[in-house]
Amino acid sequence: MGASDLFSKYDPGENFCEIFGQGENAAIRDDLHDRLAAYRVKALNKRNRAAERELHNLGITFTVYSDAGAIDRILPFDPIPRPIASNDWSVLERGCIQRVTALNAFLTDVYSDQKILKDGVVPRELVVNNKHFRPEMVGVKLIHNTYTHISGVDLIRDAKGEFLVLEDNCRSPSGVSYVIENRHLMMRSFPDLMEGVRIKPVSDYGQQLRSKLLETAPASVDNPQAVLLTPGVFNSAYFEHVFLAREMGVPLVEGRDLIVDDDDKVYMKSVSGLQPIHIIYRRIDDAFLDPEVFREDSMLGVPGVMRALKAGNVTIANAVGTGVADDKAVYAYMPQIIEYYLGEQPILNNVKTYICRDRDDLAYVLDHLDELVVKPVGESGGYGIVIGPKASKSELADVRAALKEDPENYIAQPMIELSVCPTLTEKGLGARHVDLRPFVLTGKESWVLPGGLTRVAMREGSLIVNSSQGGGSKDTWVMQ
Amino acid sequence: MMLSRFAEHAFWMGRYVERTENMCRLLSVTEVYAADQESEAAWRPILQVFADEAAFAKTGKPITALNVSRFYLCDEGNPNSVVFAIHMLKENARSLRHLISTESWRQVSVFNDQVAGIAKRRFALSKLAELCEEIRLSCFTHRGVIEATCYRDEVWRFNRLGAALERADQMTRLLDMKYFDFDRDDDDEVAPPDVAWWNTLLRTASGYHAFQRRYSFDPDPTDAAGFLLFDGRLPLSVAGAIQTAFYHLERLEKDFGAEPDKPVREAADALARRLAAPPERLNGRPLHRYLDEIQQELITFANALNERYFSP
């Protein structure tokens, strides 16, 4: 163990450890251990504070607005990397591509022939009554049938070390900027820790994104122009919008910078007059995208952009209406969806999910309420979730009543287990829970950014990795 | 191909930095020169130059060195203050982040923290010169970072155009400080500023030594005014700044096809004509009137730019 005091208190308990659990990959484990053993707790903390200061100065931040004005906050950074062995990664990569391929096939189908609904594989009302289903998209043909150009697949790892899909994100998955910036920060601030490690690079994400988007440009255009559409500087993810526009080399525009003319084409207002636009990577929700079609009061959108879409003059990424595919109830059917369109078994399994509209599942859920996590479908951000083992008697009674009243609105899952990764604390390395969000880009075909965003719950024992609740992030190393 | 909005943000980034730098010059020169004067007489001219007498009166504080310099350095409610200008610099830069270098954004961000820190600290008067110097240094750093790292595209051109225009405008204000009393309609003789004032002003405009080399015998205050107004080799001169602005406009047209429209050309011509016709003697009321007219032409020019480039 050498002179290092880093590991003296490290204890992953029953959880799978992302470094020490790498049983078949002892080389990774031992190498990382030896590298880290060269540091002392105090020195490492000091260097990490300097690294975080640099994040602040560089503006790699999310902005919180309050009465006191704009506050730029950083996502807490942990310098201990999260390694992924190359054989594990090749499974994840194939699994993510399989999943996104199935999601795109599903979206193509539900917005055209709806065969999967006619065949009764997925209940019709689950789709057509879904609040994210956009009837305006029915019959609209998309280039390469790509609906979700940018997808995030949220993965967790159970106590045995199996990766499981917790959630699909097909609307506007965020966080990719941290993946690249974390890597750059590691290289700047901890070059000694990284020296000679062979890991897959991540810094070509912008080029990949641009070329995947260009693959989906309207067929009639020779020299397509893409833009990134942001709600503006007040959006908490504005840094990421800046980052992506910069990495792709495309203008970062707001709704007010674009117009759709009577010819159903999209233009941006430039100093040299109106310039045509063909691809919009939008980071605003469907509801705000086009006040002619969706919310009339939207100040963020582009009036007429849906007309331009239907006329085949513009590509919108991700497509309107993708939210129906990352719905929690549809998630439960993903194994069937993969099999229906691809004729394959899922490479990555779901977390066990009970669909409360199913009578047997509902009976099981009602019997085991105090062990399960009950989630309303169609919500995101943790809204409305009841965690059985932590809920009070009255909360359990309430959710029991709600389940009986409207079972179709709920799914339930066992308490999820998250793996842990050694994480720097003032007292040395502590075991903290992590998840993983790989990013999948799809034009004609799919590509997966090696690794993805590793979010870490900085508080001991916490399972919540969200940045809004004290979560931080780590560099993710896919070993070559 | 650049959005009008980006052009406007770049233009205002340039303006706010120049405005900040000049404000620090004004405060420094006033402080140095005020050492042996009554506070109010020395500090009122700044308020006059920025037409801020009414706004300052609302603070309910007497015109003292400390109150006026705090008003212009730290008062977040004062749109002419440094803390406001640097906040606006950052907000404009924020909207341009994907088009400016990361080094530029980093500098702006650190600069804003620095100024916000000063504003929080309620500094003592003995610290004023030092603070102004620190802020000016950050302005120089900013210009250096932009110069050294930004791609020479329309963003950069509009940024430099805004900076040049603001510099010309601010220099006329700096020159006008001691002439404000000539605005009165009565014919009372007002004593024009003396050699000591001009020496201070030349030093503040980083022009004292060059002026000594250029006019080695019998320097006359009107020579100093002419030097600060017309010597294109002096980075801060009004004529130099206006020439620079015209140059960037020309490059915008030739390199990027952003040609000026008729009102822009007319306003530029009118400004050039006015600049080329100074009064016979650069002193007293004629100088004040002349400076005032140049400011008016600069405003007309800026409005024409706004109409043409920023409001499609």
Describe the structure.
The complex is a heterodimer of chains A (480) and B (312). Chain A is of the alpha+beta class and 480 residues long. Helix content of chain A is 31%, strand content 24%. Among the domains of chain A are: 219-313, Rossmann fold, CATH 3.40.50; 352-414, Dna Ligase, domain 1. Chain A has helices spanning 26-36, 41-58, 86-110, 115-118, 124-128, 176-189, 191-194, 205-215, 238-248, 286-289, 305-310, 328-332, 334-342, 359-367, 393-405, and strands at 61-66, 69-74, 77-84, 150-157, 163-169, 226-229, 252-253, 258-260, 266-270, 273-277, 279-282, 315-317, 349-350, 354-355, 372-376, 386-387, 410-414, 420-425, 428-437, 439-442, 446-448, 453-457, 471-478. In chain A, a hairpin with a 3-residue loop joins strand 20 (439-442) and strand 21 (446-448). Chain B has 312 residues and is an all-alpha fold. Chain B is globular. In chain B, helix 1 (4-34) runs antiparallel to helix 5 (82-95). Chain B has 2 domains: 1-151, no CATH class; 157-312. Chain A binds chain B through residues 56-59, 72, 225, 233, 238-239, 241-243, 245-246, 251-254, 256-257, 268-275, and chain B through 1-7, 91, 94-95, 97-99, 102, 105-106, 109-110, 154, 252, 256-258, 309, 312.
Q: What's the count of strands of chain B?
A: 0
Head-to-tail CA distance between termini of chain A: 26 Å
Overall average pLDDT of chain A: 92
Q: What is the CA-based Rg of chain B, rounded?
A: 19 Å
CATH topology of the domain at 219-313 in chain A: Rossmann fold
Largest sheet of chain B: none
Uncertain segments of chain B are: none
Q: Please give the CATH class of the domain at 219-313 in chain A.
A: Alpha Beta
The secondary-structure class of chain B comes to mainly alpha
Structural class of chain A: alpha+beta
Largest sheet of chain A, if any?
A: 5 strands, mixed
